[in-house]
Amino acid sequence: MDIDKLRKAEIQRHELTAADDVYTFYHDETNNIIRLRIVEGRLNVAKLKVFVLGGVVHEGEARPIEIQALREAMRIQKSAPEIKLEHVAKGSFLEVLGSKKLTTFLRWIADSGLMVHCHDLDPLYWSIADIIDSIVPKLGDRSLLPYCALLKSDLAAVLRCNLPATVQLFDAYGYPGLSPEGRKPFLEKLVELVDHYRAVLQPQNTMVLRNVLRAGRSLASLDFIEGFPSNLLIDEFSTFYRGRIAIFKNSGHTFDEESTIQDHLLNTPLTSNSRPVKNFRFADSKAEPGIQLSDVMVGVLGKMHTYFTITDRDDVAIDRAALAETSLENASLLRDLISASHEANVAFLHHVASLHDLDKLDLFLRFPDGAYAS
């Protein structure tokens, strides 16, 4: 697989300007469910959580990362072979924010010249995005194109209101492998759900989403949700590894050992200009301090982004207002670290998520350039 075509498309789509710079990335992942499918009318996982691939990154070639002082400051037992999130904080996102060890960790990351990077993905949003992408480009109304992300976000908000009913609907029509005869009734059922849960959307948003779904009934095909394996929502996650390797092809990437991902990359070797891509490797986290730091970082980010998918906006505002002392300091440290990383390179942070959840992120962390700056 040649990464340059993928790389060029991503750079153009997101207007990335510093993808050629040299960095050293350390990666870990959290909430990799391997595959998302519907089995006997239910999802194969009990709870949907946001997948995060990311960790820490620094400018330039690889350099030693000495974490002994950090271990001592966080009072990690000598018998622990590596630092993991469980040594720093446990529980829900809000509980994690209350950890003084997390304060020590976030301060140490910032003071060590390290930045954060991540690719986060909401599996529900990713699973339903193809519905909108199958319809809008074919309608011939160019004015709708800038609103694709909002339409996906609104549809996700509706379908999230009653996830069991959503899964049963998908199962009934073999989504994302609709048959031609199932196209129209499937979209009609979606419109019914939009009508039933219209209270979660602004009236104008409801009207536009309804009109788009209804217009899709007259299309000759829905290219991204017809003819595919039935009930297989997400096949695997290696494509996101390839994406990070491709975009930052001049940088070095060290990944935690993941046999499933390694097998996928071995079966489809990466090339650039017909030459093998050799800018990445897999390593044992016990021997790589950068991966250990990444374990903690992606663990926190995974809990944070999952919290936004399962928490109403009003409740996010209430939780934010209730933060105090250590929790408030950690929220500020996390905000500042994310802001500094984004300022250094916008490609460090990539969200495959609802715009409504990203609004909650801004509401909670209160970024300096956001609507809720403190």
Key words describing this protein structure:
globular; 50% helix; 374 residues; alpha/beta; three-stranded antiparallel beta sheet; Nucleotidyltransferase, domain 5
Describe the structure.
- By secondary structure, the protein is an alpha/beta fold.
- It has 2 domains: 3-123 and 233-318 and 331-350, Nucleotidyltransferase, domain 5 (2-Layer Sandwich), CATH 3.30.420; 129-232, no CATH class.
- 50% of the residues lie in helices and 13% in strands.
- The protein has 16 helices and 11 strands.
- The chain has a 6-stranded mixed sheet with strand order 10-7-1-4-5-11.
- Strand 8 and strand 9 form a beta hairpin.
- The radius of gyration is 21 Å and the shape is globular.
- The chain starts with a helix and ends in a 9-residue tail after the last helix.
- 38% of the residues are buried.
| Estimated helix fraction | 40-55%
Strand line-up of the largest beta sheet: 10-7-1-4-5-11
Q: How are helices and strands ordered from N to C? A: HEEEEHHHHEHHHHHEHEHEEEHHHEH
Q: Which structural category do the helix and sheet elements fall into?
A: alpha/beta
Share of residues in strands: 5-15%
Task: Find the CATH topology of the largest domain.
Answer: Nucleotidyltransferase, domain 5
Unreliable spans are none
Top CATH class of the largest domain: Alpha Beta
Task: Quickly describe the structure.
With 374 residues, the protein is an alpha/beta fold. The protein has helices at residues 3-14, 68-73, 85-88, 93-97, 100-111, 123-135, 148-161, 163-173, 183-196, 203-216, 238-247, 259-267, 289-310, 313-321, 325-344, 355-365; strands at 23-30, 36-39, 42-43, 51-59, 115-121, 232-234, 252-256, 271-272, 275-276, 280-283, 349-352.
